[in-house]
UniProtKB/TrEMBL annotation:
It comes from the Eukaryota. The lineage of its organism: Eukaryota, Fungi, Fungi incertae sedis, Mucoromycota, Glomeromycotina. It comes from Rhizophagus irregularis. This is Uncharacterized protein.
Length: 361
């Protein structure tokens, strides 16, 4: 029996989908449509990393960085509507494709997750040094059940067999037994999450009784370094065969005038004012793009990305903001007078000095 294909794509939903996310999601749905035309059954699985955080919800205390996740603060709900709307439009444009939205707990619920995480913990020194060379600790955390605060990089974690002890600066230590308590309360920093996800997808791909196999679409940030090289080395350290690991399709980067990636982190912090000055504010995020060009503009963007799978030269490259400025130069503007939202950002240094003592944790 032919396996269904699950096409994995993900993002940190700490803002309205930024322009790079629009590109990556569009490429994922375009690829899914082409696979369906080849007779495959495809579902696009959109992972929203609800365990990530906003810069304003990160704090430093005694040289340890703590965070409150988007799920813990409820701020993930600020942007869910934009993601849901975008996915509906993508599905409709590319032939009413099936898709589903999942969060990080979907990894923890996988039947093989306890085995994989146990292996990683047993090799925590080697894996920690590989994934987090600055701290040499696993980026494994769990939010305090009383206040939601978590040691972002797991620097204060203590490991005893299957029990992990975590530390909260307000409520002291608490623990999870990953065999008895389950894994749903665990959170994984990005490199660790990438390793765990890749290993779980590999297990699915090689298991005959699993009715689907995985492909991945992701941005070509860091030239795929941690998505592949770090993943391969991590799997080797764990002694896991990854012959059937998922194929990864990389979406092109969108770069600024200097050839540097149009950074989501800078966008979230309120940067790139020059885009607004040059009337290129639609390159900031989905909300601004849709306000300016409406559904016609979205369809034009989807059509453009769809062309990239026609010719490798279109896919294996980066695109400057000026490429899109030219593409949308003659596009009908719905509104050119966009009221800018007040965007605030507090640096970690400011958070340490000003916010943490006042923050109700």
């Amino acid at each position: 029996m032919m396996k269904e294909i699950r096409l994995s794509v993900g993002t940190l939903p700490n803002s309205s989908p930024h322009f790079g996310t629009l590109i990556t999601f569009s490429l994922a749905f375009s690829l899914a449509q082409r696979l369906e035309k080849l007779g495959k059954s495809v579902t696009v699985v959109v992972g929203l990393v609800d365990t990530g955080s906003l810069p304003t919800d990160r704090f430093i205390l005694e040289d340890i960085e703590y965070q409150k996740s988007l799920a813990s603060t409820g701020k993930i709900n600020n942007y869910l509507t934009d993601f849901e709307e975008l996915l509906k439009k993508l599905s409709s444009y590319f032939g009413n494709l099936n898709y589903e939205i999942v969060n990080q707990s979907s990894l923890s619920l996988h039947l093989k997750a306890p085995e994989i995480i146990n292996k990683i913990i047993n090799e925590k020194e080697k894996i920690g040094s590989l994934l987090f060379p600055e701290t040499k600790r696993l980026g494994l955390r769990s939010a305090c059940s009383q206040c939601g605060l978590a040691d972002r990089y797991g620097l204060n974690n203590c490991y005893e067999d299957t029990r992990i002890n975590f530390f909260c600066p307000r409520h002291d230590r608490y623990s999870i037994d990953i065999q008895k308590d389950g894994l749903q309360r665990l959170e994984f920093e990005t490199p660790l999450r990438n390793l765990i996800r890749g290993l779980l997808y590999t297990e699915d791909n090689q298991e005959k009784n699993v009715p689907y196999s995985w492909l991945r679409v992701t941005g070509s940030d860091q030239a795929g370094f941690y998505q592949e090289q770090i993943f391969y080395k991590g799997a080797a350290l764990l002694g896991i065969d990854i012959t059937n690991s998922p194929l990864i399709v990389y979406s092109p980067l969108v770069v600024d005038w200097a050839g540097v990636k149009l950074s989501k982190s800078i966008l979230v912090k309120g940067g790139y004012k020059y885009l607004i000055d040059q009337q290129l504010e639609y390159l900031i995020n989905y909300q601004r793009f849709r306000k300016k060009f409406g559904d016609e503009g979205l369809r034009k963007l989807f059509k453009e990305v769809d062309l990239w799978l026609e010719e490798p030269s279109r896919l294996f490259r980066s695109y400057t903001i000026f490429y899109f400025a030219e593409l949308f130069k003659e596009e009908k503007v719905i509104t050119s007078d966009i009221q800018l939202e007040e965007e605030t950002w507090i640096s970690l240094q400011e958070a340490q000095v000003e916010v943490f003592p006042k923050y109700d944790i």
